[in-house]
# Entry
Amino acid sequence: MKQLLMGNEIMALGALRAGVGLVCGYPGTPSTEVLETIAKKKSKGEIQNVYVEWSVNEKSAMEVAAGAAYSGVRCLVTMKQVGLNVASDPLMSLEYVGIKGGMVILVADDPGPISSQTEQDTRKFGEFSKVPVFDPSSPEEAYLMIADAFELSEGTGSPVFFRPTTRICHATASIELLPDLPKKKPQGFIKDSSRWVIFPRTSFLNHKKIEERNEKLRTELSSYKYNEITGTGKKGIAAGGVSVAYAKEALNIIGGECRMFKVATPFPFPEKKALEFLDGLDEVLCYEELDPVIEKELTYICGKYNLNIKIKGKLSGDTPNAGENSVEAAEEIFAKFLGLPTPEKIEQPDIPLPVRPPTLCAGCPHRASFYAVKLAMKGRKAVFAGDIGCYTLGNAMPLDMTDTCLCMGAGITIAQGINRAEPDTVCFSFTGDSTFFHTGLAGIANAVYNDAHMVAVILDNSTTAMTGHQPNPGTGKSAIGEVAEKIDIEGVLHALGVKSIYTADPLKLPEAVETVKKAADARGVSAIIFRSPCIAIVNPLPLLTVNKEKCVGCKKCIKELGCPAIVKDGKKVKIDSTLCYGCGLCAYVCPTNAINVKEENQNA
# Structure
């Protein structure tokens, strides 16, 4: 049976087909829908004997999966590339300890980047951690390849990386669903401290085994079906991942003839297959995202075997060293490499597109939270340390309320560092409820323990909004929608030693402003919990409208808030009823009381 599915859904079904028994991870675009697909099937009762969870962070997910893999269960861990940084601590040691059940770590890379802080390349992390890497070139290939990843993992006793990129994750493909593969019954955890307890001597001995294994894999993976050589000629193109599809399409367009090497397992690199590809070539162009992984490997092999072949790519300046690849870019690069005429560019109509800068949604409670802090701190020296989430958009004008943003949970600790350097500065951190549980707790503990002076603002909108409204420990729901223990943020702050804790509704602006002033004046660590649900998970409030007779056209509502629902209407303003969510913040800002609830909504 064929189905039209998103790449992430296809990979999820591939893992189920391969007999995965435990799936855990943390939401992060472009990886989120892999776990969500399995969670939805579990909640509907379509699959049995598969445990699914949104873990509190990627480190926790890696460790939960490790325990299950020690017991012989096939495990899938999902995250995006920056999430791998959080999970790297257990991963590095796990490779030295090894596993029993197949363990696939699906890390979605984000060339561009489209929705990430970095353009890091997980293929390089595979080399660094000595973990084998599979690099699918299409959703259809990924569906079959993920089963191979589980098999290799169990065969080598090592976790394995599965590295789709954004265009694989979010592509749509028609996939032929195949019968499930035979499942192995997990053996269970067998006590063996010489294997499962990591010691320096054990790590030393296992390190030697890992190096021997990976050297052996360089030969064995040369016969892997997805490491392919096609075409003929004296020139060659080597590519991996989605760049293979770009390369094939570009060659079809420009009509170039060359030998092509598709690298499906960039680490350990299939050396024997590479030698077969290089035989008789004069030069090779490497087309890959993001780092010159294939280029360096082929250069090394040429040096090792004394091959006089010129290897081109990012290091030679023949391909871009940042950003996504594309068919259009490949056409131009390949034409130059193959000595063909540069393809004519299709003239695009010169139509100016509307400017649509990213902004907080109309009615978003984060806008009210930022604005309350801004008003309360007017005239005082203050710094606002941001974090990863929807609220990063607090940096946009006219709010301009995010001075720093580094990584998950860092706002809390960066605020402490700035205050140490400038004790006369009131330092705020802004952290979402999901991020608070992800990596915020340690920062709060650090602040209390070291007697810091700061205000930690927890923006509790009752969901993990930016990645698609997944639950978190503060929502009272599990990944499959079941009732879960709801962890109280205020209780956690109390337990961590925070003495001054305030809770406020940011949409009640006057009270919110007064709350901020109290928190800023408190000694030591204080915390504000701004509690108001994301507009995507609640019904709208009564909508607002502008009284044209009272409106004086000062446009303060636009200049102060930047809400997309408030637009110019000649010399005055109006509220777009298709965007308004009735938060009422603009009514507080209007100096002439011209903004009120629509008459027909007065009793709503």
